[in-house]
Design goal:
This protein is mostly helical. 49% of the residues lie in helices and 8% in strands. It has a three-stranded antiparallel sheet with strand order 1-2-3. A hairpin with a 2-residue loop joins strand 4 and strand 5. Helix 6 (127-135) packs antiparallel against helix 7, helix 9 packs antiparallel against helix 11 and helix 13 (306-319) packs across helix 15 (336-363). The longest helix is centred in the last third of the chain and has 28 residues, at 336-363.
């Protein structure tokens, strides 16, 4: 697979140029592959082309009048053009576009009607209509809840800006599904040891693991770590999530295990983590796929993901007496609600163990 899919290199009057080409559109890229300039140019072109319109391509060409003012599709397009939507990170924009794209193409009547939700007048939307959209994804509770959450944000923006005639956020009247799962699987101690046994210090896989576990950061942040993040012996970063809206700045000590992995591994000049050719991973998605392969090499189950290591970090610190505020300082959480479950679980285990030890001492 090409490191930069949908790119084409060509010679233009003696000068080599590279362009991003997809869906019949072309955007020239700047910089050399492997450089930060090229990476940013590539990601911007990809977002511009793949997220440029919420209309299915064939509809946009064959039916230019398909978007009628006041419809749900029209409202989505207005949101995408707004400064508020532009403040979201590119990844967030892409995800929300796709969720709404699928929602707009759902039939409003499940008895075979061709009238899609995208054609529905915004001013006439009620909670019962949003409930239908939610229930269409009932087989996947996470997807159903994500659809509902994005609609809540969209409708609130419309109300705040007096757009589309919406006066009530009807999506808030529809509850999310109770998800029986706890989200990403938290790596167990045994799974962590199994990964480390397969990937010893000095390998790129082990360095990736130590960056995940010792910092507790998300995959986008770990993918971007490089020598420029090391300041006065600490790892300094601004988290990728909400970077343009509510940036979270962190300064984390480099623990001995991470320092040992960094010292023993041949890292890249701009980024610590590089592929087999010594080049930075083209995107955080390609890095995620590479790390998933390393997990499979270690014989770990498919449920073990990079985000599960972040949960393992929180669990580790909580079990070692970290407070909710201390967990927030390490993980970059902005709400006690994220940290408290880990602390409660750790406290319960410690209190139970203390009670049972006391009971055993009394019997002895």
């Amino acid at each position: 697979m090409k490191p930069y899919p949908y790119t084409r290199r060509y010679n233009d009057r003696g000068k080599v140029r590279i362009e991003y080409r997809r869906y019949g559109r072309t955007i020239a890229l700047t910089g050399e592959p492997g450089t930060m300039e090229f990476q940013q140019s590539y990601e911007a072109a990809k977002e511009q082309i793949e997220g440029a319109t919420i209309l299915p391509r064939e509809d946009a060409i064959a039916r230019p009048d398909v978007v009628k003012q006041g419809t749900l599709r029209w409202l989505c397009i207005e949101w995408f053009k707004s400064p508020e939507f532009g403040q979201f990170a590119p990844t967030t924009q892409h995800v929300r576009r796709r969720i709404l794209e699928h929602s707009l193409q759902e039939p409003s009547d499940q008895r075979g009607s061709t009238f899609m939700f995208g054609q529905y007048p915004v001013a006439r939307l009620e909670a019962k209509h949003v409930k239908v959209l939610r229930d269409l994804r009932r087989d996947k509770p996470d997807a159903a809840n994500n659809r509902l959450k994005v609609l809540r944000v969209l409708f609130q923006w419309a109300i705040d800006n007096n757009i589309g005639g919406m006066v009530r956020n009807v999506a808030r009247d529809v509850p999310t599904f109770k998800n029986p799962t706890e989200g990403h699987h938290c790596w167990t101690d045994a799974e962590r040891e199994q990964f480390k046994a397969r990937h010893p210090v000095g390998t790129m896989a082990r360095l990736a693991y130590e960056l995940f576990f010792q910092t507790g950061q998300r995959i986008g942040d770990v993918w971007g770590f490089g020598p420029g993040n090391v300041v006065n012996g600490a790892l300094v970063l601004t988290q990728e999530k909400n970077k343009t809206r509510k940036p979270v700045h962190l300064e984390l000590p480099i623990r001995p295990e991470l320092k040992a992995a960094l010292d023993a591994t041949k890292t890249g000049e701009r980024r610590f983590l590089v592929n087999a050719h010594g080049d930075p991973f083209a995107s955080k998605k390609s890095f995620a796929n590479w790390f998933k392969d390393r997990c499979r090499e270690a014989g770990l189950p498919g449920k073990c993901s990079a985000h599960g290591i972040r949960k393992a970090t929180a669990t580790f610190h909580a079990n070692n007496g970290a407070t909710s505020n201390e967990l927030m300082a390490v993980l970059g959480w902005q709400s006690l609600r994220s940290a408290e479950p880990y602390v409660r679980t750790a406290n319960q285990k410690q209190l139970a163990a203390r009670a049972m030890r006391r009971e055993s001492d009394q019997k002895a």
